[in-house]
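Usage example:
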Amino acid sequence: MNASTRYGPGIISGRLRPRPYHSALRGERIGYVGALSSCLFAALVSFFLILAGPARAQDNAALVQRFATESFNDIVGAVNGLATSGSPRAAPVIEALRDGRLVYRASDRAVFIRRPDNSFVNALTGDPAADIGTTRPVRLNNNVRRAIDAAVGALSLLHPDPARRISAAEAVFKSRDGTALAALEAAIGQERDARIKTLMEEARAAVVVANPQASEADRIAAIGIIQRRGDQDALAMLGSLPATTPPLVREAAESAAVGIRRTLAVWEAGQNVWHGISLGSVLLLAAIGLAITFGVMGVINMAHGEMVMIGAYTTFVVQQVIRTFAPGLMDASLFIALPMAFLVAGAIGVAIERLIIRHLYGRALETLLATWGVSLVLQQAVRSWFGPTNREVTTPSWMSGSIEIGHLAITANRLAIIVFAAIVFAALLVFLKRTPFGLQTRAVTQNRRMAGAMGIRTNWVDAFTFGLGSGIAGLAGVALSQIDNVSPNLGQAYIIDSFMVVVFGGVGNLWGTLVAAMTLGIANKLLEPYAGAVLGKILLLVFIILFIQKRPRGLFALKGRAVE
Amino acid sequence: MLNLKSKVLGLVAGAAMAAGVLAAPAKAQEPIKIGILHSLSGTMAISETTLKDVMLMLIEEQNKRGGVLGRKLEPVVVDPASNWPLFAEKARELITQAKVAVTFGCWTSVSRKSVLPVFEELNSILFYPVQYEGEESSPNIFYTGAAPNQQAIPAIDYLLAEGVKRFVLEGTDYVYPRTTNRILEAYLLSKGIKAEDISTNYTPFGHSDWQTRVAAIKRFGSTGVKTAVVSTVNGDANVPFYKELGNQGVKATDIPVVAFSVGEEELAGIDTKPLVGHLAAWNYFQSVDTPANRDFIARWRAFKKNERAVTNDPMEAHVIGFAMWVKAVEAAGTTDATAVRRAMIGIAVPNLTGGISTMMPNHHITKPVLIGEIQENGQIQTVWQTPGTVVAQEWSPHLEGSRDLIADHRPPMNCGNFNVRTGRCGGAPR
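Running the assembly step on the lines above writes:
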């Protein structure tokens, strides 16, 4: 599971990994914060390392020089060498490497650190260096990153920032680096936060289990601690014991792994249901606008998906404007985009209804073809306007990362969409049931002529109802921009699913749409692990076709005179 | 009667010849038409539009240098709208009505399969610029993208060398991923990877809900054995896939994902911070630091009037293909398809990564293979590359039935699928 956000089972909490919304713009700020924390960190580490014994200057020179290479293996060796040397330069050099700020001069293998203000210091001495000539960055790959994680992990167990201590403990848990044991013991002794302490104890257990010198009893006891952790990382740890492990330890590890797998299987079922609810909420959002235009008004609107797409593009435009004029508002960009998307998509909806659909009421086939044409026009218009490639809609920091509840990984963007879908559904329900306009809409859909006779301007109600459905599709677009491509094809992906949901739920019934979306979402996600995504979808389609044969009006059929 | 008929025939033939002779000088000044067959609307527009633009740039540049054979080049752009049968119609239109000398086009294998019979029937030339699954060699198509051994197999070798012992083969459900994964499965098994350590899965085009798959990948990767994902996920499904990987915290240091269809262009639409270290295998990266590439990027940005325009692998394939075609036409002294096809084989032009690409007798080109890691800025940085260029194996040696076939379009063989066991050409020789 996500290393930086894992807390013990049953604890509902989480730190969402902050994700800068625009690296180029925020570069300065990151640099500043980074510099501050690395200063603190460097001071601490050097203190710690001076205790461990100062290294001689020429050794340091040799160690630092090892970074001046194009070979990744040599760089990994350099990281490990420097991290275990006890040199006070270890922390700044390794941190610079991690951030891509370590450069070297090929001519004499001198190594420099680029500071956030783009000045350079000598990596060996820390003295400012001017006119360093042409340099190359020391390159990174996954092996180097792993070595850095392990080294930084071992070095930052005493970091004042709890988040850093957590990632340090996780790094040691993964690296099982025996040399970190002393630091780990010291850190466990000092740790006040029970949660972090547990993590550190688990890390110590991992080190002990992997240590061939430890006694069998110690190693088996450590396996117990790891089993209590019980997540996929623990499973990976237990599964990766070397072949030379004594049989007793091996058996203990295997039985612990079996236990963990059993518990995880239960959580997995929960995870599938969660995924299903999440998919259901996406379907609900996409379909709920259609439930109004198709379900309530009976218009087969093939351009519904394009309303969703327009909502997503509105989000993109709003974010562009915010980026240019008020970058500080970026985290609130979606809240600004919501009303805008509703208005833009709604206005286009009203225009479509006034210009095209009202001339075609009662002629289902023509409406279908006309709206399909409209959908093509809108797609190509957006393609010409914004280009055919995907547009990047950035995710606000509060919507990225994941939270763990027990062994359930809850991704923040999906959670936000579920909540949003629920709010939209509730608001729409209240609107239709509790406002005069809602009353008129229902009157018109139930008996158009009678409603007209009562003085309701039925054609205006039609236009606004269509606008409402389109506007809600626009809202869905804002949400979908967070999980899908913002491209001219966005809408096409959802139109079939939306019709499926509305037809299955029962035309003209919002509750039916809700139940249908959730049923289809959960059924899809329960089937997917076994049948695969393609077959799962086919099975669902077959099921719906059979169901419609049996109940042509869907789950919740309207009854009474309204049906005619 | 017979006499009269032959007289008439003779007259007609004579008139036609005279007309031909008279028309010849006028024709020499006519521009050479070049067909561009890339989708400008529909699902594939996202990838193919840039290829149309790069072709327009190359043609414009060639015209500034005086064209080819003293004649200007004239692009003929059509839009097959991501609609596979329409590709065949548009190809026919280009060849028979616009009378193009050569066509550059297609992205998906299914579109190439759709136009292949048209190019063979009308004897015209297609340059196909995208990496594909192999198992094909048409006398009328020049494949400037990578065959599996020029992309997928080296990527697997890289992962094996990194100690990866468990593989998830994740693909979109169509011909390219399915064939590639069949080859990769056979290759992995031959390398001693156990069948239970390979998990293959397909999702539909445009799949957007990756929660279940990413959770399954995490589960598959939690046995303590080093695991990697080999992704042949194609098109816009990649964006939600990578977003979900980022959100569920699948880090490259734990489970790296190596992709064959994700380039700079696709990454431009995503926040790449959480993806740093995931891998891509291609024959070209924008980040490759050679004079030729720096020059190309500068020209491309000037052409697009966009300082941040990105370049990608299929664009390089068109650059190479176009340069080869120009050289072949100049060598043949004509744009006649048969003569150009003969002249193409053995043509060598510099590629953008500092090497030379050669058109081989199997109509595929030699390419270097680069493995790169995604960086924070959306670029891909090379971490490993083949020492030289690799010759394409269009018929995979890892597949039953395919391993006995070779392609050699030079006389006297003239065959795209010659069976070395039976000694016969599998298809009709042309």
